[in-house]
Amino acid sequence: MRQPRLEIEYCTQCRWLLRAAWTAQEMLTTFQAELGEVALVPGTGGVFDVRLDDETIWSRKDQGGHPELVELKRMVRDRIAPGRSLGHSDRARP
Amino acid sequence: MRQPRLEIEYCTQCRWLLRAAWTAQEMLTTFQAELGEVALVPGTGGVFDVRLDDETIWSRKDQGGHPELVELKRMVRDRIAPGRSLGHSDRARP
Question: InterPro entries annotated for this entry (chains A, B) (predicted)?
């Protein structure tokens, strides 16, 4: 197991594998040098949770929906690559 | 960390993220109930290694190329779901 480790637990009954795998690929593209690994974890019961090492940074049940990708990237950035710009998606909306 | 854990270490310089992520999704589709997690691990230097828990079941450098998906599935099946049929891809070629 490598750290920092991003873990994405998704509901298989909801068929969220593709969503989880897409999220994983986006994170590994953006944080290629910073992330140790991204793990896809099959779950059930409507789960879509994202954990960075021991911290839950997104839980669909608590937050009431799926994360915006840019929001998730900001949360990961703030923890493992502070000061790093995320490019155009990082600018405040007008 | 969940077990059984399948780990795919891929070379970022070779741009094998898509290949690794595709392999991960295939494995999670076929072994949805059996796999604890699939981890994508960014690496360098031409690596494409697949590990199941502590065992390396594929190493591009040792085997001289990338794995055939059906072959990889057979190896995983034999270890975590023996006796399970893989369907049409599991039949011997004529």
Answer: Selenoprotein_Rdx-typ, Thioredoxin-like_sf
Write out pLDDT tens, residues A41-60: 999 999 999 999 999 999 99
**Enclosing H/E stretch for B17:** helix B17-30
B75 touches chain A (CB under 8 A): no
A28: helix, strand or coil: helix
**Domain around B76:** 5-91
Query: Touching check for B35 and chain A: CB below 8 Å?
Result: yes
Reported ipTM: the value is: 0.94
Q: Which two tokens stand for residue B12?
A: 């970022």
Which CATH number do you get for residue A49? Answer: 3.40.30.10
Do the Cβ atoms of B70 and B59 come closer than 8 Å? no
Q: How many domains does chain A have?
A: 1
SS3 B62: helix
Q: Are B4 and B35 in contact (CB under 8 A)?
A: yes
CA distance A66 to B90: 37
